[in-house]
Write a structure and sequence with these properties.
With about 475 residues, this protein is of the alpha/beta class. Helix content is about 40%, strand content about 10%. The protein is built from 19 helices and twelve strands. The chain has a seven-stranded mixed β-sheet with strand order 1-7-6-5-4-2-3, with helices on both faces. A five-stranded mixed β-sheet has the order 8-9-12-11-10.
C-alpha cells in the first residue's frame, strides 16, 4: 500500500467503501469516476509506447490489461479486504480460475473443503482435472487433522469458502490457514457470501481472497464481476522449488524472476499479466461502474441482509413442518461458535431450511410464495428462493447429496433487504399451501397471508429497526 492508501485504511468501513481508493479527476473535477468505455489508450509519443510496454510507465495500453474504471474498483476492494492488491475480472468463476491458475500447473494437487459452490467443484474436478491437477475434498472442514492428512508433496493450495452455500457451515479460517502454512502452501478463500464487511479472511490467516462481485458487493443483480485479492502476506521465496513460475528467471523481466522484481506482489502481478491478460476474462468498464455504485452501500445492505436473515431463520425454526434450519447465527447451529468468532456482525443471509415433506412439500412451498423470487442468484437486494436438489446440486447423486445434507426437502433462501414482516408473511403463505396440501391461489397475495398474532410481528420487528445507523469501526 502507498502512504495514501494506508491513510485510507485508518478510516471506518462505511467511510472507506465510499471514499477508499478514489483518484480525483484532474481534467474535469468529476466526483464520480468516469466510465472509460475504450478498448485502447493513446500514447503521447513513440517513447511513451515503448515505456508502457516495458513496464517502466504504468499508464494504460489496452483494457484487457487494465482500465481506469476497473482499477478504481480494484483499489477499493483491496482496501476493504485490508489487502495489497486486487484484480477485477468478468465473473466470480473467472476469479477462482485466475487465482488457481496463478498457483497451479500440471501434476499439482489441491486440498479443498467439500462444501463449496458447485461451479468451483466442477472447475477443480473437470477443467483443472483435464490439465493434470488433482483435488481431494475434506468432508468435515472443522476437522483440521483431515486437512493435514490430505496434504501431499505436490500440494500447492488449500481452498474453502467463508460461508458456504447452502448450509451456512462457517469456516474456521485461522485453523485451516495454520494447516496450510505448515504445509508451505497458501489458503485461497472465497469470501463472496460474507463480504469484507462481515469478515476479512486475510486478517485471520488467509492469503488469497476471491469474490463473485455479482452478489453482495454489487447487490442489485444488474451485472457480473469477479475479484481476486492478494493479501500480500505469503512468502513465495521460502520454497523457490515449489513456485518455479514465480522464482525462475523470466525473459520478459530482463532475466529477473517475478519474486526478484516484485517481491510479495509476485503472485498478483503474475496472475494479472500472465493469467488474466491472456485468458481474457475482462469485465466491461460499465459493469465495473455498476459494481462500484453497489460497493458504496455495502455495509448498509449487508447489515440489513444479515439481520433479516437471522429473524427469518429464528421464525422458521419454530415451524412444525421444518426439520432443520442451517443458519450459523442460531444457537442450535453446530457452527454457531465459529460465527461468533469470525462473524460478530452477522452470519450472512444465505442459508437453508428443510421441510419434512421432501420434494413435494418443497415444490408446493416454492410455488406458493410471491415476494421471494424463484431464481438462481445470491446476494440480491431482493429475496430469492431455490430448491438445490433439483437445480444447483442436481448433478450430484442422491447419495452425494445426502452426504452433504442436501435433503429433497431442503430449500435455499437468499434473504434480501425488504421489511422482514413482509418476508415472513410470504413464507407463511408457503406453509399455508403445504398444510393444505396444495397451492391455494384463492388465498390472496403473499402480502395478505396471515402470520399469527401482532405480538409475533412485533417480536420480529425489533431485530430490524427501520431507522438505524451503521456502527463505525473503532
Amino acid at each position: 500500500m502507498s502512504n495514501e492508501e494506508r491513510a485510507d485504511a485508518a478510516h471506518g468501513f462505511a467511510t472507506e467503501q465510499v471514499h477508499g481508493g478514489f483518484v480525483p479527476d484532474a481534467a474535469h473535477g468529476a466526483r464520480v469516476p468516469a466510465i472509460h468505455m475504450s478498448s485502447g489508450f493513446l500514447f503521447d509519443d513513440f517513447d511513451q509506447a515503448r515505456e508502457r510496454f516495458a513496464g517502466s510507465d504504468d499508464g494504460y495500453t489496452y483494457t484487457r490489461l487494465g482500465n481506469p474504471t476497473n482499477a478504481d474498483v480494484e483499489r477499493r476492494v483491496a482496501l476493504l479486504e485490508r489487502s495489497a492488491e486486487a484484480i477485477l475480472v468478468g465473473s466470480g468463476q473467472a476469479a477462482v480460475t485466475v487465482a488457481l491458475l496463478g498457483l497451479l500447473q500440471a501434476g499439482d494437487h489441491v486440498v479443498s473443503a467439500r462444501s463449496i459452490y458447485e461451479g468451483t467443484r466442477g472447475l477443480l474436478l473437470q477443467n483443472l482435472g483435464r490439465l493434470g491437477i488433482e483435488v481431494d475434498f475434506v468432508g468435515d472442514a472443522r476437522d483440521l487433522d483431515a486437512w493435514a492428512a490430505a496434504v501431499r508433496p505436490n500440494t500447492k493450495a488449500f481452498f474453502a469458502e467463508t460461508i458456504p452455500n447452502p448450509k451456512n457451515d462457517v469456516l474456521d479460517i485461522t485453523g485451516v490457514a495454520d494447516v496450510a502454512h505448515r504445509a508451505g502452501v497458501p489458503l485461497v478463500v472465497d469470501n463472496t457470501l460474507a463480504t469484507p464487511y462481515l469478515v476479512r479472511p486475510v486478517e485471520h490467516g488467509a492469503d488469497i481472497v476471491v469474490h463473485s462481485a455479482s452478489k453482495f458487493l454489487s447487490g442489485h443483480g444488474a451485472g457480473l464481476g469477479g475479484i481476486v485479492v492478494d493479501g500480500g502476506t505469503f512468502d513465495w521465496s521460502a520454497a523457490p522449488e515449489r513456485w518455479t513460475h514465480l522464482t525462475s528467471p523470466e525473459r520478459s523481466l530482463g532475466g529477473q524472476s517475478y519474486v526478484e522484481r516484485f517481491g510479495s506482489r509476485a503472485f498478483v502481478v503474475y496472475a494479472r499479466d500472465v493469467i488474466a491478460s491472456r485468458i481474457g476474462p475482462t469485465p466491461s468498464p460499465f459493469n465495473a461502474f455498476l459494481l462500484r455504485q453497489g460497493i458504496e452501500t455495502l455495509s448498509l445492505r449487508v447489515e440489513r441482509h444479515s439481520a433479516n436473515a437471522l429473524a427469518v431463520a429464528s421464525w422458521l425454526e419454530q415451524q412444525p413442518e421444518v426439520t432443520s434450519v442451517d443458519h450459523a447465527g442460531l444457537a442450535s447451529s453446530p457452527f454457531h461458535d465459529l460465527a461468533q468468532r469470525y462473524l460478530p456482525r452477522g452470519a450472512g443471509s444465505v442459508f437453508a431450511f428443510t421441510l419434512a415433506g421432501g420434494e413435494a412439500a418443497a415444490r408446493t412451498f416454492i410455488d406458493a410464495v410471491e415476494l421471494f423470487s424463484r431464481m438462481t442468484h445470491l446476494g440480491d437486494v431482493r429475496s430469492l428462493i431455490l430448491h438445490p436438489a433439483t437445480t444447483t446440486h442436481a448433478g450430484r447423486t442422491p447419495e452425494e447429496r445426502a452426504e452433504q445434507g442436501i435433503d429433497d426437502g431442503l430449500i435455499r433462501l437468499s434473504v434480501g433487504i425488504e421489511d422482514v414482516a413482509d418476508l415472513v408473511r410470504d413464507l407463511e403463505r408457503g406453509f399455508t399451501a403445504v398444510r393444505a396440501g396444495r397451492v391455494d391461489t384463492a388465498a390472496g397475495t403473499g402480502l395478505e397471508a396471515r402470520v399469527g398474532s401482532a405480538s409475533d410481528l412485533a417480536a420480529l420487528a425489533h431485530t430490524v429497526p427501520q431507522g438505524h445507523v451503521i456502527a463505525e469501526e473503532l
